């Protein structure tokens, strides 16, 4: 594993652990406001009070705590959304590829419609209709890019269908579902994993953008995007309010993207065997 | 009608090989090293042979023996300026050109590019991947011609049409405008032959040109190649694993095993008096039409050819050999010797060597 | 000797896009009659476009025939329900051409050979494992290979795994579709030897599909020559090769390179391209390339007639062709 990938793994692990053990790392409640402590600078600036390592925001909330809890919220939504889109997309792709015929045409029609509509618009409409409840957010974000899984899975299935080992399975007496489970899924696992990894940053950014615009996660819940949005008004004098969450978002996105690219190259070698 | 043709014989090939004429291609101590994950591996260890004008040398062996990469090295498609990264080619490959002999290993790539297609041509196994699918066939031949000769496009197209007629394409005028996918495998291979011979090269390298073709089409294409070879006085390096094709096409045979030539002689000698155990085992293991099926069982050679990274010490064939002698076969590297005139063998169990190459 | 497989009037057609927008019908298998006796090895020989591969798969109903009948051990396969067919699959198996693509790269050798047994729920897991090791031994593979993946095996080894997989269900009938064509010379000889031994030991009936005439002599009792979807000649291997009756068989045999360098042939063969299956000429499919064709050959399609003891050929000119 090249050095930069090892670094990415370490960073990911560190962030994950930090988010998980947030209550033990920072003694502050991320939502506790304290106007007296507002806009305190972080440790690398003058005026650091020795207590709030990343400073505080305009309501006096500790930024380190908010970042760590924010990771939980943002990454949590993104991961769950990812699972939703992966499962929905894969099932659609399998059905389209294995069953074919009218089902294939229907599914691909839906896919084409989805691609033509600007996704953000759909999400905005969804939020307007169903509100900003976390479950709604997960489902809406989970609709992002579901069609990417469908197309890839369908393509792989169409290729696999022609392979002699699938025909061999049929000649042994296997049913379609047996073939899907035994042969198709293990063989599409690699591209699927890569796709999931590469889609994660996009979904994270989507959630962050929505929260930034104020229509995603609602206050007082800490979400990285929300924090950047809130920090907009203080960019000139208290820029650290927006900086910390922005850096976190960028780091996670960058790190996962890099690992996804590496994974794709590594797994491709085996696929070509 | 079909039965009559198998019995006619052609003049002895010994007469065709005039050892006093200068060879068209002279390969000496060709060695190809490849950089792999497990270090530097020699995939071709020591290959030497000559090809005279009008003569065909068949390079025979199983896949992995190094035949194809030898031909690619001759064409400088591997090595300095070639495709294969990390392949080092050493040795001497002298091509006899109008300007005298040129060493294909050392010459600058610009010289090689000038020679390719003009003095030295190659045809491959898969005509579909060697022909550009988006250009018409006549255009591709004409393009090959103008690259090498100072002809106008019209003249090149006229020559292309002549080549199509020469290779026996029916309705050649219409076929000039066809795309490769519109033609059958046999026709595409004929087009390949037409392109390769359009500038009257001196040497043709054919790498399994008929392996992918049906047997009746193969017969036609081999017939064509033989006819054109004698018309043009071409020297030919013919790579194949099919001993039947070797018997019908070759004047001399070089048998390759694990990167080295293990036997090198005229074709009749190789078939009637093979000196290397691998050659005789190969002959016995090939199913043949002329063998009487009653009782004659195939004798498969046990084991498999080792990968070039895992060569055993001593002779590469010794683990599969019935004649192995504990030293020297298992310990020392065996040199190529000439136990009888014009018959070279890399084996200590053949007759006493008379000289080393 | 009983017929294990009887084929009557089998036709398998595909829709192909012809010139332009029109979809044409390609009769890959065109009204074929065939009999395979129990315990015999029948070679099905032909070049590309002959329909031999499609015929093999049609008999097993891996490709659905368009018309005709296939009887296996007295039972009619065409029209049989999917469930009944699944059960019957245990008795007829296929060995594939490509040793690389016919094994799932994500499964171990053990899983590959076990698949058939597990699909039909034969025995408990330990029983099946025992059977897999038996099969590995039968095909000459070391038991330690059971945990390996296909990419770690050589072409010959992979083909042996494919054979083990086919034999695990103890079938009576094997269709070997170009089983040795993609193999190296050494591996080819080894696998042919293996198949001949297995056929003897297990009393298998085999349909051996190949384009390589050299191989036919080594393994087949009878041979069946196909051209453009039709059977043009059948008979015992020795006789057909020694004195072929049908002009196409003669062309085929004359085209095979003679491995005797002292007998060089001119190969002065008629330079005609084989016609495509889509534009089959009226009458005898071979007449456009046949030196003996007469007017009758262009008008009417010949059917198989007797051409000697146990031999048949589809040609009007049999008696006029010089030996």
Topology (elements, then pairings):
The complex is a heterotrimer of chains A (273), B (357) and C (323).
Chain A: H1 3-20, H2 22-25, H3 63-99, H4 101-116, H5 119-130, H6 134-142, H7 146-161, H8 164-172, H9 176-213, H10 224-231, H11 240-271
Helix pairs in contact in A: 1-3, 1-11, 3-4, 3-6, 3-7, 3-9, 3-11, 5-6, 7-9, 9-10, 9-11, 10-11
Chain B: H1 13-16, E1 25-36, E2 39-51, E3 56-60, H2 67-74, E4 87-97, E5 100-103, H3 109-115, E6 120-123, H4 127-130, H5 137-148, H6 153-166, H7 172-175, H8 185-197, E7 203-207, H9 215-232, E8 235-240, H10 243-249, E9 252-257, E10 260-266, H11 267-272, H12 277-285, H13 326-329, E11 337-340, E12 343-345
Chain C: E1 3-17, E2 23-37, E3 41-45, H1 52-59, E4 67-72, E5 75-76, H2 82-88, E6 92-95, H3 109-119, H4 125-138, H5 155-167, E7 173-177, H6 185-202, E8 205-210, H7 213-219, E9 222-227, E10 230-236, H8 237-242, H9 247-255, H10 295-299, E11 305-306, E12 312-313
Parallel strand pairs in C: 3-8, 3-9, 6-7, 7-8
Antiparallel strand pairs in C: 1-2, 1-4, 4-5, 9-10, 10-12, 11-12
Helix pairs in contact in C: 3-4, 3-5, 4-5, 5-6
Can you describe this structure?
The complex is a heterotrimer of chains A (273), B (357) and C (323). Chain A is 73% helix and 0% strand. By secondary structure, chain A is mostly helical. Chain A has one domain (73-271): MetI-like fold (Orthogonal Bundle), CATH 1.10.3720. The longest helix of chain A has 38 residues, at 176-213. The radius of gyration of chain A is 22 Å and the shape is elongated. The model of chain A is unreliable at 269-273 (pLDDT under 50). Chain B is of the alpha/beta class and 357 residues long. Chain B folds into 2 domains: 21-263, Rossmann fold, CATH 3.40.50; 276-345, no CATH class. Helices cover 31% and strands 22% of the residues of chain B. In chain B, the strands form 2 sheets. In chain B, strands 6-7-8-3-9-10-12-11 form an 8-stranded mixed beta sheet, sandwiched between helices. Chain B has a 4-stranded antiparallel beta sheet with strand order 2-1-4-5, covered by helices on one side. In chain B, helix 5 (137-148) crosses helix 6 (153-166), helix 6 (153-166) packs across helix 8 (185-197) and helix 8 (185-197) runs parallel beside helix 9. The relative contact order of chain B is 0.13. The mean pLDDT of chain C is 89. Chain C has one domain (3-320): Rossmann fold (3-Layer(aba) Sandwich), CATH 3.40.50.300. With 323 residues, chain C is of the alpha/beta class. The interface between B and C is large, with 58 and 49 residues.
